[in-house]
Amino acid sequence: MTDTSPFMAELTTQINQLPQRVQAVIGLVPATSARLLRQRLFNLYPATTDARLGVVPELIDLAIALNPPTFRPKPLTVSEVAMAHANAYAAQMVTGRAHQLLNQSQLAPAACRTAEADIEKNLAGKP
Length: 127
Prior knowledge:
The protein has 127 residues and is mostly helical. The protein is 69% helix and 0% strand.
């Protein structure tokens, strides 16, 4: 089943603007039930008229899923190290896209700074 909502169309557009290798890594991240719920809620109750701005939380969630702020020491294989590096790179690209969308939005500069500070706290695993 294909979701044709404006939200999913914008999310797909933003992801398609990333390099192909980043898109390939993103494709390995499964959609969580929380993400699907947020997408449905956004479709029912759009928070903003700018669909690009509504995608920012999803991009941040995707970045956290790609590169979770946890430390679990264990011996890694070469392929696990390579995937960790690919995920970290993809997470940086996705986070950069979220920051870019915030800066292009019609939000007040103070609101953008607050949102960017919250993004960085979330990525660092701080509540």
